[in-house]
Amino acid sequence: MKTVFSIAALAAVAAAVPAKNNLLALRQAAPEITDDVILNYALTLEHLENNFYQQGLEKFDEAAFADAGFPETRARIQTVSNDESTHVSFLTAALEAVGATPVQECTYNFPLDDVKTFLATAAILEGVGVSAYLGAAADIMSKTYLTAAGSILTVEARHTAYIRDQIDQEPFATPFDVPLKYNEVFTLAAPFIDSCPSDNPPLPVKAFPTLTASPDNPANITSGTEITLLTPDYVVRPADGSSQIYAAFITVTGPVYAEATPVEGGFTLTVPEAEEGNAPIGGQSYVVLTGCNTAVTDETVAAGPAIVEI
User: Fold this and answer.
1) Which pLDDT does position 33 carry in this prediction?
2) Which of 183, 203, 31 is nearest to 103 (CA)?
3) What is the pLDDT of residue 14?
4) Which pLDDT belongs to residue 2?
């Protein structure tokens, strides 16, 4: 049976979603956003990436990469893995140096069916990492921390470009990267996390309902392409039964909206084109459902983000 959410009750949507782990409860009474909290937020993501690469490299040896058509890729992925491990050590030491408690790694569930899936997931995680650092940058007060976060962001961006190139995606798909807010990032990370230590410091994040791109969408999506976004196990409806629901594509210069039409299992929409002078929609793109076409905030997001490659 599907749960029906009113678009007008967005503040309660995330709390109404069944948590697949203990993360949601831990974060509801989270502290205000400070530099220490932001570093632990970054460390949470670095733990996830670090563990992901460790699991993948342990499972797939050089022969597995070669058999999958990537004979020279594993060595570079080992370098990426080493970078993520270094990021974990750096952020942990930085938190300990100021007397803050670093979060510990969680228990994860990654899709590691084959090398191609591993690399495709790596590209997504690295892209989300770039957007996470970019989105948090404006909240960092310490110039030292901001510079350190920036130096990690640029490395994550190089990881993204390399891996995208390996899997035949455009490595430089757009002239601007996309900043994501804390809850948007957590929504994308949460499906990979089974549980976290109960004594981890709380973070100011919550997960929105999951939104996914339909596997039946066209292979090559551009502006003007009709796509479907899926709302598994729930339905989003306007409170008055008739108001428009929008799909908002997030960009650095602001959201780009498209009217979303309800269909069985989700919504269809036509990918919009950003107005001239604004950041284009391209590459690993993020789209949320909202009842508002003037702003995307934690109060107006009904579901998502979904990731759509454009």
Assistant:
1) 87
2) 203
3) 38
4) 56
Residue 108: beta bridge partners?
193
Query: For 22-45, how does the pLDDT look when each residue is reduced to its tens digit (9 = 90+)?
Result: 344 334 444 578 999 999 999 999
| CA–CA dist 174, 161 (Å, integer) | 11
CA dist., res. 80 & res. 158, Å (int): 10
Among 212, 178, 185, which Cα is nearest to 281's?
178
The bridge status of strand 3-6 relative to strand 234-237 is: parallel
pLDDT more than 70, % of the chain? 90
Q: How is residue 262 written in tokens?
A: 């309800």
What is the model's pLDDT at position 254?
96
pLDDT of residue 19: 37
* For helices 115-136 and 143-166, angle between their N-to-C axes, nearest 10 degrees: 150
Give the side-chain half-sphere CA count within 13 A for 78: 10
Asked whether the whole model's pTM tops 0.85, one would answer yes
Looking up tokens 């967005």 gives 10
On whether the CB atoms of residues 124 and 307 are closer than 8 A, the answer is yes
Pair type for strands 3-6 and 107-108: unpaired
pLDDT in tens, 216-246: 999 999 999 999 999 988 999 888 888 999 9
- Measured distance CA(120)–CA(124) in Å, rounded: 7
Q: Who's near 2: CB < 8 A, 6+ residues apart?
A: 233, 234, 235
Count of other CB atoms within 10 angstroms of residue 262 = 14
Query: 193 phi and psi, to 5 degrees?
Result: -110, 120
Task: Tell me if 216 sits within 8 A of 310, measured CB to CB.
Answer: no
Helix, strand and coil in the chain, % to nearest 5: 40, 15, 40
- The vertex-175 CA angle with 148 and 230, nearest 5°, equals 95
**Distance between CA atoms of residues 61 and 265, nearest Å:** 39
> 50, 81 in Cβ contact below 8 A?
yes
DSSP annotation of 109:
-
CA proximity to 230, closest of 198, 207, 252, 262 = 262
